[in-house]
TrEMBL record:
<comment type="similarity">
    <text>Belongs to the dTDP-4-dehydrorhamnose 3,5-epimerase family.</text>
</comment>
<dbReference type="GO" id="GO:0005829">
    <property type="term" value="C:cytosol"/>
</dbReference>
<feature type="active site" description="Proton donor">
    <location>
        <position position="130"/>
    </location>
</feature>
<dbReference type="GO" id="GO:0008830">
    <property type="term" value="F:dTDP-4-dehydrorhamnose 3,5-epimerase activity"/>
</dbReference>
<dbReference type="Pfam" id="PF00908">
    <property type="entry name" value="dTDP_sugar_isom"/>
</dbReference>
<feature type="active site" description="Proton acceptor">
    <location>
        <position position="61"/>
    </location>
</feature>
<comment type="pathway">
    <text>Carbohydrate biosynthesis; dTDP-L-rhamnose biosynthesis.</text>
</comment>
<comment type="function">
    <text>Catalyzes the epimerization of the C3' and C5'positions of dTDP-6-deoxy-D-xylo-4-hexulose, forming dTDP-6-deoxy-L-lyxo-4-hexulose.</text>
</comment>
<dbReference type="GO" id="GO:0019305">
    <property type="term" value="P:dTDP-rhamnose biosynthetic process"/>
</dbReference>
<dbReference type="InterPro" id="IPR000888">
    <property type="entry name" value="RmlC-like"/>
</dbReference>
<dbReference type="GO" id="GO:0000271">
    <property type="term" value="P:polysaccharide biosynthetic process"/>
</dbReference>
<comment type="subunit">
    <text>Homodimer.</text>
</comment>
<dbReference type="InterPro" id="IPR011051">
    <property type="entry name" value="RmlC_Cupin_sf"/>
</dbReference>
<keyword id="KW-0413">Isomerase</keyword>
<feature type="site" description="Participates in a stacking interaction with the thymidine ring of dTDP-4-oxo-6-deoxyglucose">
    <location>
        <position position="136"/>
    </location>
</feature>
<dbReference type="InterPro" id="IPR014710">
    <property type="entry name" value="RmlC-like_jellyroll"/>
</dbReference>
<protein>
    <recommendedName>
        <fullName>dTDP-4-dehydrorhamnose 3,5-epimerase</fullName>
        <ecNumber>5.1.3.13</ecNumber>
    </recommendedName>
</protein>
Amino acid sequence: MNVIKTRLPGVLIIEPRVYGDARGFFLESYQQQRYRDIGIEQPFVQDNHSRSAQGVLRGLHFQRSRPQGKLVRVTRGAVYDVVVDIDPASATCGEHVAVELTAEDHLQLWVPPGYAHGFCVLSDTADFQYKCTDLYDPKDEGGLLWNDPDLGIAWPLGSPLLSEKDQRHPRLRALLSGE
């Protein structure tokens, strides 16, 4: 597998080795020792699978006191995936990384604990799968406004379909100041 470091500490783009022929393809989507060798050492305790329609934007989400690391991938369709550094002690706080993930390219994205994460669907539908290093706790969830102008995210759609919750998340400066 090929590992691409991003400008955010610990955030990795992973290109798994894909073996294909006329019958189809095979890839290892996770193998504990190989992922430990690239620095993903936390155990995974929960796997999630979501399906979303074109134009849906989910995020930007995080957990406050029990942050989750996420190993994400797309198994149908295509998404624009975004990771935002929300650690006020980090030199890259407020910066983001964005990458397109598709079922055809098989790319994975490692989002370490402590980052906000979200994606929007570019294809008719998308199946999004991710492994988590901690259990989801609805009382611990937090969010960041998807279109906060201070983040400068160039989302590839103008009017996404959002949950009510995702429409009400605070901007980064409010989050960092505790408002």
